[in-house]
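CORE FACILITY INTAKE
Project code: CF-77B
Contact: R.S. (postdoc)
Sample description: multi-component assembly, two entities in total
Requested service: structural model of the whole complex
Turnaround: standard
Below are the sequence entries exactly as provided by the requester. Do not edit them.
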Amino acid sequence: MTEVSDWRFRRYRYRLIGSRCRECGETSYPPRRRCARCGGATEEYQLPRRGRVVHYTLLKALPTRYNRYRPYYLAVVELSDGTRVIGMLTDVDEPSEGMEVEATLRKLYTYGEDGKIIYGVKFRPVL
Amino acid sequence: MGMPVVAGYGFTRVGEHWDRGLKDLSLEAIEKVFEGLPSVEIDAIYVGTALSGFYELQLSLASHIADLVARFDASVSNFEAGAASSAQALYNAALGIYSGMYKAVLVGGVEKMSDELPAPNYRGVSLVEDSFLVNYSGLTEIGLHALLAKMYLSEYGLDEPLYSYLPVNEHENASRAGHAQFRNRITYDMVRSASPVSDPLTIFDVTAPGDGAAYILLMDKEYADSLGVEYVKLLGMGAAGQPANLFDRASPLFFSASSRAVEKALEKAGVETEDIDLLEMYNPSSISGALVLESLGLADKGGAGKLLERGHFSLSGELPVNTFGGAKARGDPKGATAAYQLAEAAMQLLGRAGDNQVDGAEYALVHSMVGLDISAYAFVLGV
């Protein structure tokens, strides 16, 4: 991804905007243009910020851009409307299954020391 | 209509070939393909590579492979689809033969993964998954497999990750395979107590980066007969897909693309699952292997581990799987992986598998997939 595609995806990165099918109501994150279940057209949909950790793993095999966070917890989070998403956990020493979390805007990576800082959604324990 | 047959194969040892590049490895493999064959006219060269543009900054690889072997009359095509790159190449090469347009196609793949450090590699091999998730949600291929393992253990109420018997079996098979990357025998306890890469998966549950090249000579049966070469038949093939996002799927634990691709290939071949003598499947982790076996109906849901523990899928078992070690132990040089699988299946059917021979093998099933079953390919080979 270049800085341009980072910019293009900014809404979905910053605000946990997913999609909802106009036909069957199926929700997805990241957003889809056509529903995977019924093929219907979708619309943008603001996902709820709160949810709970369903599964998590301490990831040591991580990509270059995230080396500074090595290791980090990657989790399946079920949001309060039932949508399941994958995301990084932050501000947590030891997560647990069922732990209440909320989406928060955090630094993801930077383009070099003086370069642009890319922010995105991570999940932290509910304060 | 043409009838594709595998009339030759060649590959390098999988490993860390520091002193050799994409072209060196390809040349060694291609020369082995033609060893002992009469002069063959090649209509096309189809090359798969997952990341040649990433490791060696070489794109349009098929053009350069044609240049390498000075086959300038051949049409060339490139295929990029992770570990299924050369499966895609083979699928399309076979279409060329079925159509009657081609009499012989050189098809294979190559990868040079040791050129990169672990972190760029983890990112590189993860890019077959949705790039939004990889770049902004922190997902990697191994992390995704680990979360899937958690879902699996919880869904089926399993305390023990018995799917880790799969790498034990794969290392056992590779211990007698000269071309395998990892020939050491391991035990279940060694897998479980190895250093975690993303819990519950350890370094022995997942594949490692490797360099390698493997090529196949796919020919029309009539042409092969006229040259008097030995071959195995490509009896059927199939392909299917499903959503990349696990949570856009009906069930994250069912690999519907693999299931459907295999169903199509068996139907085309007119072969039943029970007729299959060996399976070469693609599983970049132990858990994904268990899910492939379960999704193909070869094990009950949640039950693959128990069958693996009992030796059901070992060389002397009911259905030998990954007879030369599979991606875990033979090695997983992504773009070349499916071509290795094809070559190994052909060796079994031709009775050239040496110490790893499955006696009397008549039908082999080869399975390949992009990422976690986003797209899948299946081939049925027969004598």
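Facility notes:
- Residues 4-116+210-234 of chain B form a domain with the Peroxisomal Thiolase; Chain A, domain 1 fold (CATH 3.40.47.10).
- Chain B has a mean pLDDT of 97.
Invoice: internal transfer
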